[in-house]
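Homework help thread (please don't just give me the answer)

Our assignment gives two proteins as sequence + structure token strings and asks us to describe the second one. The first is just a warm-up. Here they are:
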Amino acid sequence: MSASINGKYGRVFDGRSFQDVVYDPLERPLAPVPPITTAGPSLSTIFVSIPQFRDGKRCARTLRRLFRSASHPDRIAVGLVEQTDTEHPKADPTCLEEYCKLEGYEMGVHKPGVAHKGERQADWDRVIEGCPRAREQVRSVRFHHHHAKGPVYARSFIRKVLGNEEFCMQIDAATDFAQGWDDLAIKQWVETGNEYAVLSNVPMSDKEREKNGDSGAEVPRQCAIKIGSEGVPLFENVADGKAIGLTRPLLSTTQSSSFAFAKCHYETNVPHDPFAVQLLETEKFPRFARLWTRGYDVYTPSLNIVYRDNVALHPLHHTTGHGESGERKWPKNDGERRDAHVRMKVLLDIHHGITPAEIASLGGAGGAGIGGKISAARANLGIYGLGRRRTLEQLLEFTGIALPGRDFTGQHGNDGNGCSGPAWVPYDVSISGKANLFDGTGTADDLDPEPIFPLRTMPDATGGQYDHPFAMGNAAWDEMTAQRRATEDGSREASSSDVPYSVVFLLWIAGLYVWFGAFAGGDGRTKRKGVTEDRLHIMVLEIQRQNPV
């Protein structure tokens, strides 16, 4: 890996001062599950989810830029969640309608009423047929904005349009992209060395992009975690720090809902909670807790992949007559919001300020006392609760925060400390990422239903564990990491002599290939978990093509 001009591995500004990045993932005795791509990095498909609330025009520009900026637009699929005024479509158009209009395909003027429904449908079919990529590559869910319940609720509908794509990317309706963003994202994901990696950070604004250019040397990074008024940790909407000159993606203690890129088993193992309604900030850390305890790790990318389009405001944000302060907001329901807030506290085992009646609303009958009821309510969360690969206590140590005790004392945030590179926390890989914290305990008395993915036929969508070649537990993992360390030791001298990181990674993959053949091959077992030697060989050949030695 070539050295950064800002330090060996780059520098991080944590909101107060600069720190050298000190964490080197290659020097760890245990390592994450290595990344596997089914068809090679340059052949993988990507599903992009975009929820929009009465924001069709900006969303249309995002959709157009998404395809035009991609290196391989034919391998991109889009899932739209459209929340619009279905009774007045001209005043509040959908993202897809506006996108097709930008591409030169627009519906004509038709008379209202049922009698003219057929001609309107025929005209729409004409538009969709001619509109580039609309019919084959864009799927959508649409409902009236009066039924909207916030961004988390909207994202939960992605399950209805997620297909068999390999990678999933989550963005906002007003997003811009680096040129070749699809290749950049997959390459960054591979460089984490982690099958369960999630690339995520607060996107840089277009205005900052104009000022800094597209060099990618400076990337927003969120550092501080604060404790909210009721004890739930919070992430800020804006990045309070930045990473400069990173040589590879950097492990993070925060994530952003405005950009996330991962394998699509992330969407099935950590589905968006449809019961977290009416929430904005309160749901972010609980979601991070869910993904982290299920074995996923968030990384700040070493370059900017997407940007926040803040050139144009959301429609009518500055005009009176559309909700409070003139903004187009979803209908408020204080009772629903309170129930969802209690749900987040229960997930994190925060007892203070929760009444028995509120616990009962979550199905927490449980044993005697509030503790027993909360345990039952936590178990009832099921797939929307914590996982079993890591514990809540490990998460608090990893993030450097403390949750309030029963008497609502002792809580504290992290003040941005540890932002220059937290240490990766190992887990037993034989435990499925889908395994829930309370599975097999008999504690649940009203388990939340699992989400259904009607278009996805992969095993991870129907309750199976995602296939990877190392499902045998830590014993096999020790063997693999020993082989990896031996490979790294042999290549470290070459690496320190300005040999590109990609070559080191190639040598590591080669060592992985040798290990796989030695410990899993020879008797047909190479296909036992759905990953063959051929697939690993494809990965090696793909890296060779991209990085000839």
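The one we have to describe:
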Amino acid sequence: MTLHAISQRPNIIYRRIPPANVKLSDTITMAAKRTRRAAASLSMAALLIGLCFSSSSSPHAPMVDAADPKRFLGTNNHKFWSLRGGALVDAATKIDFDDNLGSLTLYGVGVRKKGPIKVYSVGMYSDESAKSSIASLPKNKSSLTTLRKSLKSSKTTSFLLKMNFKVGAEKMADAIAESVDPRTSDKGAVDSLKKLIMDGVFAKGAATPGTILQFDCSSDGSVKVSVDGKAVGSASGLSEPFCDVFLDDNGVSPAFRESVVENCCGVASSSSSSATSTATHSSSSHNPIHIIGSLFYHKLKLPKLPYKYNALQPIISEKTLRAHHLKHNAKYIETVNQIVSEGGASLKHLSMEQIVKSKTLKESNTVLYNNAAQCWNHLFFFRCMSGSGGGGEPRGLLAKTIRRDFGSFDNLRKEMESSSITAFGSGWTWLAYDKKEKKLVVSTMTGAGNPLIEGIIPILVIDMWEHAYYLDYQDNRKEYINGFFDRLVNWKYAQHNLKHAMGKGIVPETVHHVSHHGLPLVAALFSANLAKKTAVHMLFQQS
């Protein structure tokens, strides 16, 4: 085949075949140069797409949020931005961590290296009080000294070590014991810790990629060891030394320490530009699963509905929707703003999701919790309905998952209907995704209940408070629910939420990054893949 013929083939983008004596490294370099030019073109196209998305005022614009600090914590913290659903991702290993471990909050993540080998990623969780102790401190590593002192009074501080490289049981135990040993004089306790790790890892053969070692450091000084959720035992007197392994000046993961500083320090005095971005976001009508980082030091504003007040008729009247949105929803927002403004810095650094997921706040500050949860729930509920083309049956991934977990869509509908009708008092009927069980679940929660507090991800919800339906249906809940499923439910939005919950929402996240966080990462993502394909194709042509 001639060079001219090859250049005319539509599926080949190269103008000439490289000489036969070109080395692999040279071939990849040539491919990289070409993909940089392609990436520049891609970035320009992505910019235009981003501008279109970010400037759209349509209620049906792509559901991409404007600030999304859940995946973008800290000021300009690009290194820890996550394409998936976790709170933080280790940029070195692409392993992400949930933002809560029970009632504990994630502080930071980082990689532990052994030479060039990325052995594991570590994430640290503790209570909010220790985090508050450094919230107003400057973003430098000296602030970690204050944090280490605060952690001594914390009931529990947990470290999750998520393996990225296969390590034998004995080597894994030796590595951790060798890090703890110089930080304590109790050699017997170190030996006990080493044995616990060895026993826990040995039970599964080795610490393979995906294995999770959990170390719970308690205020009584003990360190509880678990492997893949299975408790192994406790070693006494090592709580403080174990924390120092990751937090002191000689900590084994500089990236982890940097992450903690970036995400926990300087929160109370974030830049005005960050605050402005958050304010814009809090007034948007985007998916509340991703507005959950909205910072309260900028007052919440009543979000606009994604449709007109008369768009849900005849199922929900304009009168009902106006009262629901402008009276009830607005009151919850007003109450939250008032409580936070009077609560000082301890409340102002909290995100919406942190409040909704906090069992501690639910018990200690019930009024704030209930009103914040109602703000979250209402924004989510309004997005669960469509002003046009709603109702019917779901399709795609959501339909398949429903059939898998409930047998059929009719079974799901009957279960949600029964749960809603038989529930006592006011509340919310949720379709949610349990990440641990990897399945959809239905639950009706009273009051301001939200499944996030149990670590379960909302997919769809029906508001069963009387102000949502009473003007139109009085006590006929069944007719209201039938209308919701027949004419209103927004299955596209529910599927969008399910994809994020299952970690399959790459495309929406890419659009999000294009329109709000700049273009280098997006260009790099496409460029890397294109460079690999180009190099392979050029080598194939040589052969």
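TA reply:
I won't write it for you, but here's a hint about the kind of observation we're looking for: The chain has 21 helices and 14 strands.
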